[in-house]
Q: What sequence folds into this?
């Protein structure tokens, strides 16, 4: 059986890679992918802590399933917004999205 620490190390790496990508990227799609990494790290933590703390119960698994559903809905809405921004200004850089106000 794999030790819980290995799951937490993977989850922590995913979380911080997602934070780094979100802060340093200028492209909205790259920022969305980084946000997905952050949310997947959280869902891994839900599943791991549920398995190790309460192995007979499924609350963490249900939270993970709800998180995946919410993440899928959030991605669909974000992609729709990004497509509309691309149609309006011709690129998906965050610095140019402020020009839509004018």
A:
């Amino acid at each position: 059986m794999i030790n819980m620490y290995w799951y937490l190390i993977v989850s922590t790496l995913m979380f911080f890679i997602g934070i780094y990508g979100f802060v340093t990227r200028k492209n909205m799609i790259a920022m969305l992918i980084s946000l997905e990494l952050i949310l997947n790290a959280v869902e891994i933590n839900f599943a791991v802590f549920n398995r190790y703390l309460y192995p007979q119960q499924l609350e963490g698994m249900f939270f993970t399933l709800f998180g995946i559903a919410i993440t899928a809905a959030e991605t669909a809405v974000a992609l729709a917004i990004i497509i509309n921004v691309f149609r309006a200004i011709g690129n998906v850089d965050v610095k140019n999205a402020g020009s839509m106000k004018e």
